[in-house]
């Protein structure tokens, strides 16, 4: 049964979207797709959380996710991962945030959002 559950997590593009929800509390406010993955952004009261998901699980490759509240330093998780980078969470309060994500050389970046 565990093998079957593992296959469900690995199947299809962005099969990890449910996993992103489990990694970040709150409600999804943005999904930033790019050719090799997507970065999903959640808000929970005064906190913003993000996770970058590879389009497909596979060998370890360079991935990152970052969130920066205006006036603060960015919080970043980067490394070589098989499926996702993050989650990272910042206290944003009522401040705008910037979000970045990359998987294997392709990336996404927002301007100031959630203002």
From TrEMBL:
<keyword id="KW-0732">Signal</keyword>
<protein>
    <recommendedName>
        <fullName>Secreted protein</fullName>
    </recommendedName>
</protein>
<feature type="signal peptide">
    <location>
        <begin position="1"/>
        <end position="20"/>
    </location>
</feature>
């Amino acid at each position: 049964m565990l093998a079957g559950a593992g296959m469900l997590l690995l199947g299809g593009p962005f099969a990890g979207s449910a996993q992103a929800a489990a990694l970040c509390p709150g409600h999804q406010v943005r999904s930033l797709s790019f050719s090799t993955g997507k970065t999903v952004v959640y808000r929970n009261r005064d906190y913003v959380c993000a996770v970058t998901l590879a389009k497909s699980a596979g060998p370890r490759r360079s991935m990152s996710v970052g969130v920066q509240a205006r006036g603060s330093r960015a919080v970043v998780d980067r490394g070589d991962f098989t499926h996702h980078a993050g989650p990272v969470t910042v206290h944003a309060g009522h401040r705008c945030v910037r979000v970045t994500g990359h998987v294997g050389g392709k990336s996404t970046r927002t301007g100031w959002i959630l203002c």
